[in-house]
Amino acid sequence: MIMRKKHIKKIMIFIGILILFMVLNNTNFFSGKSEHQPLLLAHRGMAQTFDISKVSNDTCTAEMIYKPEHSYLENTIPSMEAAFKEGANMVELDIKPTKDGQFAVFHDWTLDCRTDVEGTTMDYSMDELKKVDIGYGYTYDNGKTFPFRGKGIGLMPSLDEVLSYFPEKSFLIHIKSDDAKEGEQLAKILSKLPEDRLRLLTVYGGDKPIETLNEKLPSIRVMSKGTMKSCLIPYILTGWTGYVPGTCENTELHIPEKIALFFWGWSGKFIERMEKSNARIVIVAGDGGFSEGFDSKSDLNRLPANYQGWIWTNRIDVIAPAFQNKHTE
Question: Which GO terms describe its molecular function (predicted)?
């Protein structure tokens, strides 16, 4: 009986030491105040915004924008230029294949919602898409007025145009489909770029195109649901030790704020560990659905103290000045 009690005591001591190790190895309590400011990822550049809570898979968002506060349209060179001037460290853009083998920078599955033509980008050449009015369908008052109609002609750029116009800027390129052929097509385009340019680019999208792209061009940073799961599920199981799975290397991880606390060492130690594996951490708002971002000054209050990762925002014009003002206080 005495031996049994001693044995139980040893087990309890071991468990206590193990728990203490797990806590100390993953706490941010002893981390000093960082001078490093979070980095900002502008979703689609400077864009017209809308109530994300009312969005579903087939929603035409151009028909539900708020009353415009600026003249920029998403996924255009002027909107990207404005975002960078505001203080964006990176801009996210969407690409869709064209009939003549290029990539148009455009978000929707079809052209019907926000343009003056129908069909998909695959039905047109890039030259033909240059004649399309991408501001045609925008309205904030249920169709009473269309403030951007006639102002979006010629504004749909190709991916080549964007990369040429911003040779030293960082972009997150979104392949909108799950077609492996698009990953192969993009690999051919990006493989022509020098390594120092590729380091400024990240690509995300469906599992199939990302897997194909990564096979053809392993040096580029990528993200898909598959790469996220292969990194984060093993980390949840073993991350308490400080171990980062090899599957996290050279990836981007979008972490919804609602589940962020489930990751060992969140946020400081988690980000530090992942950055050592060249994994970029981007926090997105809510559960991450429909591109929710940190879009108001009050949203920033939900960030962890001394957060040092990237922030996803749909309102770079609001968020960047908020950080600039904070930095000068």
Answer: phosphoric diester hydrolase activity
